[in-house]
Each structure stands twice: as C-alpha cells, then as structure tokens.
Amino acid sequence: MLRTPGGYWDPLIWLLVFVVAILIVYIIRAFGRSDYKGGEQTKPFLSGMDVPDEDALHIRAGNIYWGFMRALEGYYDVLRKYHTGIVNDYVAWFVGISAILLVVFFIVGVI
Amino acid sequence: MNMSYVLLHAPALLIAIPLFAAFLTPIIDRFSKRVRNIFVLAVLIIEEILMIIFAWDVFTNGIHVYTMGAPNPTSTVPLQSAVPVRIVLEVDGMSAFMGLISTTVSLAAGFYSIAFVRKETGQGKFYTLLLLMLVGMLGMEFTGDMFNLFVFFEILSIASAALVAYRSYYGDAVEGAFKYLIISSIAGSIVLFAIAILYGQYGVLNIAALAKAMKSTTLDMIALVLLISAFAMKCGSVPMHFWIPDSYTVAPASITAMLVVASQASLYALFRICFSLYGNTSYVATSGAILILFGLLSMFIGVTMAIPQKDIKRLMSYHAISQTGYMLLGVGAGLYLLGNPDFSTHGMAAMEGGIFHIFNHALYKGLLFLTAGAIFYKTKTRNLNEIRGLAHSMKFTTIFFLIGAFSIAGLPPFNGFASKLLIYESVYHVNPILSIIAMLVSILTLASFMKVFHSAFMGPPMKDVEKGDVPKSMLFGMMVLTAGIILFSIIPGWVVGHIVHPAAQSLANQSAYIRAVMGD
Amino acid sequence: MNEPSKIVKTIASIIFPFITVYGLYIIVHGHLTPGGGFQGGAITASGIVLLLVAFGSAEIAKKIKESHLSILESIGALSFISLALLGLSATFFYNFLAGSNFIFGRIPPFGSNPGDMNTGGVLPLMNISVGLKVIAGLSAMVLALALFARLKRGRKGVRKK
Amino acid sequence: MIYNIPYMASAILVIVGLYAVLFKRNLIKIAIGITVLESGVNLFLITLGYRENAVAPIYTNLPEGTSIPEGMTLPVPQALTLTSIVIGVAVLALILSFAVKIYQHYGTLDSREVRRLRE
Q: Is residue D44 part of a domain?
C-alpha cells in the first residue's frame, strides 16, 4: 500500500474491484441470447455495397488522429520549423538557453 | 572472501569488473563467439546480483564511501590534509538506486543483444562498448568528485556514440551518432569549464568538500548555470531535446534502451548538483523553478510531437522526452520546496514520485524500445504505415508491448500510475496547473500508444513476414523488464518505502552527504 | 596522390627508430620526469604516422594488422586494471609495491636529486601499460582513418552506389 | 594585468570555438571548433594552477635550496588537463571517422544537407 499526500493507492484492492467489475459484466453478458450464431450476422453492412477486403479497412498510422493534427496545425508547423535537423542549430539552442538561464539567475540574484 | 569484504570494496568492484571484462571481451572474441556471449552475460548477471546486495546495504546502513588508493577505503581525508585529495567514490541511496536501474537495464539489453546483433560484424567491439557504457553510467552515479563525473560522462558519451553508429551501413545511423557526439562533447567541455571555475575558487574537486566551502559567489552562479544547461541538454529536456529523437531512432534497439538509462545518468548528475552541491545556497528555489519549467515543456512538447510520428522508435523517443519531464517536474517541485516547512509533506512526496518514475521509466521505456526492436527485427522497417497485424504471429511481443504501453500511460494498476499519482497529488500543492498538465500529458500518451498498438499489432496479418515470434534471447531480455514492471506494480508501497524513500531522503539530506566524506 | 620520393622514405626509415626510442623513454621515465604513458605513447604512435605518410597506408596495412593492434590495446588496458585490482588487499588502485624493496619498490629520496628509476611502485608499471594501450590505440585509429580514405577512392571508381 | 592575459586568451578560444560550431556548416570545421573550444577550457584549467616564481611540481627537478612545497605550481590542474586532452583525442577521432562515414553515405560534408533525421 502506497501512501500519498492525499490518500493511498493499493493495486490489490484495485484488482479486486476490477475482478468484481468483470464478473458483473459477465453476468450481464449471460443474459444475452444463447442461440446467437455469428457467421452472416457479424459481417459489416455497407448499404448493400460490396465490403472492401480487410487490408483496405485497416486504418494506417498516418491517418490516425488526423483531425487532432489538423486542428493544431499552426502549433505543429512551429515545432517542425524549429526541429531543423542541422547540428549547428542544436548547439545554438543550448547556447541560447544557457544565456537565458544566466540572465534569469542574475535578475533573481539582484532581486 | 567474506561478505563484509565484498561490501566494503563493492563501489570499486562494480566499476572495475565491467571495465576489466570490457577489455577481455575482444580477446575472448578471437577464440569463440559462444564463450564470449556467455562471458558477457555472466558479467552482467554478477553485476546485477552484486548491485542488489550492495544497494540493500546502502538503503539500510547509509552512505558508503570508498577512497581509491588509500591504505583504508574509508579514510577519505588524509591525516596531513584538511580536504580529500584522493579519488573518492560516494554511494548514497540515490546513487545505489540509479546503479540498480543501470545494471537491470544493461542485463536486459545484454540478453536481447545476443540474438539481435547475431548477424552483424564486429560483435566483439559491440559488447566491449556495451560494458563500457555500463562502466560510464555506474561511474557517473557513484563518483564523489566533480572531475570523475566529467571523465565518466565522456566515457559514456564516447561509448554510446560509437554504439549509435554501430550499423554504420545505414547513413542515418552515422548522422544520429554524429549529432549525439557533437552535443555530448560540447556539453562535456562546458561541464569541464564549470568544474574549473569551481576548482579555481575553492581548490578542491570533491563534491562534499565543495559543498562545504560553497560561498554563493557570482562565479558559483555561472558554474551552476553551465552545469544545469549542460546536464539538462544531456538528459533531453525541451528545448534542448532535438538530438534525442535523432539518435535514439537509429541506434540498435538494445542500445536505445541503454541510452534511456544513460540520459538518466545525466539526470542524476543534474539532481546531484542541484541538491548536494548547491543545496544550501540561495539558488535552490530558482533552480527548482527552472527544473519545473523544463519539466513542463518537456512533458507537453514531447508528447504532442510524439502523436504525429510515423516512425515507431521516433515516436517512442519523443515519449522518452515527455516522461523525463515528469521526473524533472517531481524532483524540481521537491527542490523548489526544499527548506520550506511543507517540504516534509508535499516536497518529499513529489521527490519520491519523480525518483520512482525514473526506475519505472527505465523499465517500461526500455521494454517498449525492445519491442520496437523486435518489430524491426521481424519486418525490417520502422515505418508504422508499412506494418500491421503483428499480433497474429508475435504473441509474446504483443503482450510485452501492451504491458509497457499501459504502464507508460499511467493506467492502474501498473507502476507508472503509482509514480504519476504521487507526482499529481504533490505538485498540486505547488500549483494546480502543474497537475492538470501532467494528467493531460498522460492521456495524450495513452492516445499515442493506442495509435501504435492499432497500426502495428491489429488488422490483417502481413504477407511477407515469416511466422513465429522473435528468438528466445530477445524474448528473455524483454521478460526481465516485464518482470520488473509487474513486481513494481504489485508492491508499490513497499518499493517506495524501502527503495525510493531512502533515495529521495539521501538526495534531500545534504549535510549527511557532506559528513560522510568530511567528517564532523 | 604522388608517391613520396626515395629521400622521404629513407629519412623516415632512419628517424623512425629514434622517435620510437624517445617515446619509450618518455613512457618509462613517466614517474620521474614530465611525461608518462599517454605522452610517450602518442610520440611512438606519431612515428607510425610518419611511416604511414612516407610509405602509404597500403604498405603499412600489410605490416601492421588492425586486429593485432586491438589485442595489444586490450592487453595494455587489462594489465592496467589488473594492477589496480591487485591493490585490493587495501583498496582499489592501492600502491602495493611502493616501499616494498621489490621491483620499483625503493623509497625515493627527499629533496632535490637526480632521480631513481627504481621507485614509484606500480606507477611505472601502469605507465608502461597505458603506453602500450596508447601506442596500439592511436596507431589503430590513424591506420583506420587512412584506410577509410582508400576505401572511398576505391568505391568512387569501381562500384558506385 | 599580465596574469589575466591567459584567462582572456582562454575566453577568446572558447568563444572562437563556439562560433565555429554555431556558424560553420562544414562538419570538419565543426570538429575543429570543438577542438578549439576544448583548448580554451584546457588553457583555463592549466592557468588556474599557475603560481608566481614557482617550479614544476617534480622533486627531481628542484633547483638547489628550493623550499618544498611552497615553490611549486599545482599539479592537480595539470593532471586534469592531461585527462581532458586524452578524452579530446578520442572524441576528435570518433567525430572524424563519423565525418568520413557521412561523406560516404551523403556525398557531402555540409551540415545543412546532413539532415535526414528531422521533425
């Protein structure tokens, strides 16, 4: 059991609750019809059109979260612009950050 | 050879054994590849066992000091002198904690490498450099003086850069290694410059002696700035993180897992300097705030950059940056509150969370990189658009990946949740915004790993990939880390109480660190 | 690149032993005078660089194999660490030979003196092993870089990707 | 004043080295910049150990009648400098061999073109 400032965390209790939840789900599932067959009933239905094969249905990684990235396009453009891949720029960031930190420490020291 | 003798010399032995083995490896390699593999694994196992015994002793009995070349290991300050002049190794709870991480991940990486690099040339040199990386990490974590920190830092940088370029028939591997080495050598030079500034003022190099003599002059401040920025760059905090995805992506998978721990050794050096060297100066609150800021930036920018990535290892390296942000946030919050009255409640919990997260991160991020390597081993590509349906053939890898992904996303009941919970609750006390951002980042992490899981493991099977899982040695390497994750998930309270708390305590307790070397 | 003239080759052959002896001198006297394993090793390796420049990398690569240098380097490093480990009766790196009247075991006289070779304990031995490592390491490094250059020229003409 | 010149020289060397790493696009010139930066740091270290009218810290080289140990320069910075030089040699060799390899793969040494890894 792990004590945190606001309470505690015990994975075993969590697991117990999880098992109970699974049991409840199983019980609810048991109310389902037992004569369910599968086969024809599980096929996707596209308004009567031919269903494309499995390969075409699989969503590629490049398309996942497309909307998210589209919404944050401006933000991503800025980040991409600064990750130039040129080693000189990487060192320039280091030198710049050191300079900024130096100024910050000076100001804090004066105050 | 009785136990107390071994424990007395353990700090030196832990560094000396892999160093010796590293140079013995190329000689054994000439006679038999098989014996060489067994030898390297035996050394790594011995290191792990010795480290566990030694760390347990440190956690229960307190700081170990070891003076090299002295007639007696504990005589840190010679009779004729007022300051330590020899090379002193000082192992406190935090050092032992980091040492445990290094040896554990090295063991997993060693097992994994046996099959992973079987078809490459120059394997003798590969294992030599792997052991030298272990030496560099342990040296950085155990050393008690600034100059050896620099020396081991450079050993680590050179060995890792050479390993990043190990598959030099890929052009981008050499490019990543080049960037890594340029960044490392600049950081090394700057660190040496800062050490020279400190030495010029106080005439000592020992961290404890320096901390005792520290007078908070302007030069001390400049040295602190140089050290913070150099080590923050080497641990990969935004906005000096650009080299991390570049070099992590192209390294062999087992080396990427080691690089994660190597970055954490720099993180350790950062914490050691802020807490033990500058612990009673007036810069504590400022540097704490800066670490928190670095942590926030790393968390957020790291995770948002991970989402659009199409290269599996590049995606994971952005997550490495993001998770480093949690550690900086947790320990930075502890540093910010150091000396305040509420340090003992919230500051300590924040530090425990941050430090616990270091171990968790090494375990699950190492595991995830190893699974990414397994995918690369099978499909010969890292592009997520070109792979799918691997769960059909790689059952164990899928399970390992899921455990790692759940753990990094902080889903209960995994260990990532335990450490993140400590961080959320305690940094809420510093500023509620911090916890909110931390939780948001956790959600985005889960989203991004669901993307990897969906595109790599789900869907119809790939046609041109042979059936079956990766070789047994790779599976065993992943299993070592998975076992660690499960163990830490089941008993987080025990781990925090007996391993993490001594580490956080020793980091916060600067006077004990000084007393162990300088006497009363 | 033109082949160096006969004069260059002859002079290099004559100077090489002197450079080697000087480098070895620096290594062996490391505990008495400025210098030591690395400096002496660098001087000796610079002799090999001289040969490399004078005779060309192909000629030298036939005589000195990279794998042999690597073994030599390992032996140097191993003997260094072994010497450090032998001190484990007291501590790692303990100078167990100093003052033992064994090899290099005499106690050095205090104050200004011409220097006694037979002092220093393990330090001269460590200097020698470091020197061995540095000679092998630096030579292998320079040789590898020289061979790199030849590899590139070969690729451009014969098999370009 | 005269004793400050080495410090100024080391500062100039560090700045020149950083300039080369920041603004020179040739990989070999970046390597040279790193070496110059390292030399600046080494000069700074070795200057710290200097003492006026002191001799080298070697017993056998002491002039007759010199008192020990007041009249010796500090040996520790010299040891540090030597270690730093050794590390510098290793780093430089590795950087140069990477540069050769990059030239083989990319056909150029311009850092603006060695950027397959980005975003």
A: yes
Are residues B36 and B124 in contact, defined by beta-carbon separation less than 8 angstroms? yes
Instruction: Report how many domains make up chain B.
Output: 1
Contact residues, chain A, for D21 at CB < 8 Å: 88, 91
Whether D119 is covered by a domain: the verdict is no
Spatial CA neighbour of B164 closest among B148, B182, B176: B176
pLDDT of residue C32: 83
Contact status of D74 with chain A (Cβ, < 8 Å) = no
Greatest Cα pair distance in chain C: 67
Count of the separate structural domains present in chain A: 2
Here the CATH number for the domain that contains residue D16 is 1.10.287
Main-chain dihedrals φ then ψ at residue C132, nearest 5 degrees:
-60, -45
- Report the alpha-carbon distance of residue B166 to residue B173 in Å, rounded: 8
Residues A66 and A111 in one domain: yes
User: Buried (b) or exposed (e) across B188-214, using 16+ Cβ within 10 A?
Assistant: bbbbbbbbbbbbbbbebbbbbbbbbeb
Q: Which domain holds residue D11?
A: 2-55+69-106
**Whole-angstrom Cα distance, residue B275 to residue C155?**
54
Residues of B in contact with A11 (CB under 8 A): 412-413, 418, 489-490, 492
Question: Is the model more confident about D61 or about B260?
Answer: B260
Q: Does A60 touch chain D (CB under 8 A)?
A: no
Specify the DSSP element, H or E, that contains B88.
strand B88-91
Specify the higher pLDDT residue, B519 or B97: B97
The pLDDT of residue C156: 43
B19 inside 8 A of chain C by CB: yes
Give residue limits of the domains in chain C.
6-106+119-157
Q: State the total domains in chain D.
A: 1
Would an 8 Å CB–CB cutoff place C112 in contact with chain D?
yes
pLDDT by residue (tens digit) across B144-169?
989 999 999 999 999 999 999 999 88
- Residue B32: count of CB within 10 angstroms of its CB: 11
ipTM of the complex: 0.92
Spell out which residues of chain B touch residue D83, defining contact as CB-CB under 8 Å.
147, 151
* Chain B residue at shortest CA distance from C87: B69
Residue A108: give the domain boundaries. 59-111
pLDDT at residue D22, as a whole number: 94
Residue range(s) defining the domain that contains residue B39? 3-518
Percent of chain C with pLDDT over 90: 41
The H or E element that residue B89 is part of is strand B88-91
